[in-house]
Design the sequence.
């Protein structure tokens, strides 16, 4: 069941304009067992959530699909909701710039790419950029709940969806029936600390990846047991001599390689692909790295892109813009290099919100006071939202309960029967008997 739902740009001044939110409802498969509605969000920020409701059996346990109307929506500014943040058509010009400038000209190119991206966003989506913050999406969630006619509602959020959920249950605690936050960040970390936490997490996973490759003679990037040294050599060679792919795309340089690695660190299921891509790059073939890079940026087969990255940046720059000058941004590079010596440049290769014009709308401080028990899921090998960050989210909530999942992947629900059973039981009953559970 598809629908659109109108919400104001500005809840304090509804006359300014309206977003039309695209929504999908998957009714409870067994109406006699229906408990109520459950809002779901896959993360981002910037990703739409329609797909979670279009076929929820791919993502949630059978009892959940039987008992809840699953409500997926594309938050304001994203996906098929209109108007959506839409800044640029091609990403190569902006996101394959040399991330380790060694000359004044190279540094200017990097700065200019960030400035031009912000200018294009302002030109093409400036009308809505002040209104796509997490705080406003939380207000939309409560409007959706009210439109559904439910006093209380359940929620399941993955990755950034956990941040969105935490803000919602803090802002509207009396409307919370149950909430699951899978792959949660540290709610008290600012822009820089969040970046450092992620850089450290990705570096940890990449170190594990290289160690496993060095120990496995069947790994295509084995390099006689020195995958680490081979990588260090390769990444410098890509800086000096980027690889042409012959398809009118930007050359495969350090920026492309670092993005490809980040993509693969989201799940160990992608490690085989990265092993082969690195081995091919050693031989002068960068197509494997370019493919992983394109997957990260959601590039489609016809060469077009969605608006996920543009929306991501727009939301982030409202929630917490971070350093507001080029010089301050650069001053943090040594800290990133200290926690992520191999991958730091993937996290310091642009100037984020320095040139952003929309006034910040900083996300509400997270407490969860009055919302009741909330399950937080943290995964031991999660690069994007490291386990320690999920622990901090749990501690920030008035009644957070943590499930620790042992796995090399981002988010943990569905990894094994232990976590799936525990989460499903809680969602069905709202009861939870543990403070921390190991799965």
Sequence:
């Amino acid at each position: 069941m598809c629908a659109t739902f109108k919400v104001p740009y500005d809840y304090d001044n509804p006359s300014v304009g309206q977003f039309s939110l695209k929504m999908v409802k998957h009714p409870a498969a067994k109406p006699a067992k229906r408990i109520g509605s459950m809002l779901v969000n896959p993360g981002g920020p910037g990703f739409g959530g329609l797909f979670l409701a279009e076929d929820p059996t791919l993502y949630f346990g059978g009892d959940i699909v039987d008992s809840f109307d699953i409500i997926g929506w594309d938050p304001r500014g994203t996906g098929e909701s209109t108007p959506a943040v839409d800044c640029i058509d091609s990403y190569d010009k902006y996101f394959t710039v040399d991330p380790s400038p060694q000359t004044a000209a190279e540094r200017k190119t990097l700065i200019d790419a960030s400035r031009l991206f912000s200018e294009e966003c302002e030109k093409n989506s400036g009308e809505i950029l002040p209104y796509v913050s997490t705080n406003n999406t939380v207000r939309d969630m409560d409007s959706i709940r009210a439109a559904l006619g439910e006093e209380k509602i359940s929620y399941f959020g993955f990755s950034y969806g956990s941040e969105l959920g935490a803000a919602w249950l803090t802002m509207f605690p009396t409307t919370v029936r149950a909430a699951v936050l899978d792959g949660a960040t540290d709610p008290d970390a600012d822009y820089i600390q969040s970046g450092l936490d992620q850089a450290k997490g990705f570096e940890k996973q990449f170190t594990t990846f290289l160690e496993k490759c060095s120990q496995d003679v069947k790994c295509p990037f084995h390099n006689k047991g020195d995958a680490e040294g081979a990588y260090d050599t390769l990444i410098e060679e890509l800086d000096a001599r980027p690889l042409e792919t012959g398809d009118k795309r930007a050359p495969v340089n350090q920026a492309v390689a670092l993005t490809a690695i980040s993509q693969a660190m989201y799940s160990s299921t992608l490690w085989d692909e990265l092993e082969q891509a690195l081995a091919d790059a050693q031989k002068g073939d960068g197509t494997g790295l370019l493919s992983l890079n394109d997957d990260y940026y959601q590039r489609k087969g016809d060469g077009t892109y969605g608006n996920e990255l543009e929306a991501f940046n727009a939301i982030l720059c409202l929630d917490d813009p971070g350093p507001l000058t080029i010089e301050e941004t650069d001053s943090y590079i040594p800290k990133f290099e200290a926690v992520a010596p191999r991958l730091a440049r993937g996290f310091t290769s642009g100037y984020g919100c320095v040139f952003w014009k929309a006034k910040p709308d900083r996300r509400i401080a997270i407490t969860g006071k009055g919302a009741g028990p909330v399950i937080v899921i943290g995964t031991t090998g999660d690069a994007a939202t490291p386990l320690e960050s999920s622990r901090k989210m749990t501690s920030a909530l008035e009644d957070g309960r943590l499930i620790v999942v042992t796995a090399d992947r981002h988010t943990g629900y569905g990894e094994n029967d232990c976590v799936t059973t525990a989460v499903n039981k809680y969602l069905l009953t709202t009861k939870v008997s543990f403070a921390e559970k190991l799965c």
Remarks:
- The longest helix spans residues 191-215.
- The radius of gyration is 22 Å.
